[in-house]
Amino acid sequence: MKIFGNNNSLSKGFEYLDSQKYFYFDSACQTLRPQEVIDAEVEYYKKFNACGHRVKYKWGEIVDKKVQETRDSILKIVGKNSKEYSVGFTLNTTFGINTVLHQIKPNKFNQVVTSEIEHNSVFLPSITYAKKNNLKGLILPRDFHGNLEYSIEQIKNSIVLVNTTSNIDGRNLLNIKELCKDIKKNGSLLLLDASQTFGHNIQLLKDVDFDASFGSGHKMYGPSIGFIIIRKELLKDLDYFFIGGSTVQDVRKSDFDLISDDSELYARIEPGLQNFAGIMGLNEAINWKSNFRKNERNSVQYEEELKLYLNKLLKELDVNLLNPNPSSVVSFYTDKIDSHRLGVFLSERNIMCRTGYHCCHYYLKNLKKFPPLFRISLGLNNTKEQIDFLMDNLKILTK
Ligand SMILES: Cc1ncc(COP(=O)(O)O)c(C=O)c1O
């Protein structure tokens, strides 16, 4: 095993992991958790392990306060306010998308529109919702940079559900603002799978008037948890069937009243007891990232540097690279070695990269007919030395 650097070369927050032994390049699936995030979760368990949203004793009050802080932080990072939007917690992005989409009243819409480069978490609910409600399903192309290619006719009276950043090659929905304006003017809804965006380029979502966007804490240095940022107008108009404890204010023999207090509307999409430790860890992850190397390069600059470094070295490899642009998420295949075998060989050296279709079967396997891919995704835990080690090994194995 190649030995290099020292623990100072490891990004702050991940000192607990030996950077000379473990080479984790799967942040697009889930990021590693900084020590501060782990501590925040443990603090909940050890100091005020109570339920939120119902409890009047002191521990419960602390939980409510901290949970509210996380909701506020999430709104703040996307530049939204609590007058128009609410934040609800859920299991992950997949669960969030299903929760909202399947409870939208279909009567105002003709079709569900999505794009070709979607994760199965977008693709499958789009298919099932359209089928269940006898709506048309439309799949639109994305250009090399990630722009959605559409005409006004194609997005009229539609539920448009697309990702803002691809987990295949990091392409971004660059025409998001124009798309959003066209959607608003044409009786449609804009739902965004922003799970890859929250960890890398939140700026993209600013000033975008979306109806709902979905994220996963585990893709942004937080615990395994999902969240939904949803326009209150839409939240009030959902056709609720996925309900239970905490979602109602009164229940009679055969009907009930959903929570109606404007400041608690999120409760309608949070049936049952929540992952309070996870919610607190998520707030810590948001704070941690915004304070990352504050006096040197911030998280965006640090990641940019890593990204350019990796992408420069990738040019030296004889592989079929899918990426049109440098990105923190890169995918390729080579005729010299099957991607899964490559992944297994690298694993022998504790290098962890993803192989396969990355849950984008429609686009990668059936439309493009690619063989299984090899994916490298960078995170703030990575260093240039780690990238060197990965590339040295890739060079040998793809020769
Ligand atoms: C673009 C994209 N959308 C959705 C998901 C699903 O996220 P989760 O597994 O957190 O539900 C992923 C996960 O990798 C993703 O990359």
Key terms:
399 residues, alpha/beta, Aspartate Aminotransferase, domain 1, Aspartate Aminotransferase, domain 2, 2 domains, 7-stranded mixed sheet, 4-stranded antiparallel sheet, globular
Brief digest:
With 399 residues, the chain is of the alpha/beta class. The chain has helices at 35-47, 58-77, 93-101, 120-132, 152-155, 176-185, 197-200, 232-237, 276-290, 299-314, 339-347, 361-367, 384-397, and strands at residues 23-24, 85-90, 111-115, 136-140, 158-163, 189-193, 212-216, 226-231, 248-251, 256-258, 320-321, 329-333, 351-352, 354-356, 373-377.
Summarize the structure in words.
The protein has 399 residues and is of the alpha/beta class. The chain folds into two domains: 7-25 and 296-397, Aspartate Aminotransferase, domain 1 (Alpha-Beta Complex), CATH 3.90.1150; 38-289, 3-Layer(aba) Sandwich (Aspartate Aminotransferase, domain 2), CATH 3.40.640.10. The chain contains 13 helices and 15 strands. Helix 6 (176-185) links the parallel strand 5 and strand 6 (189-193). Bound molecules: pyridoxal-5'-phosphate (PLP). Pyridoxal-5'-phosphate binds next to helix 3.
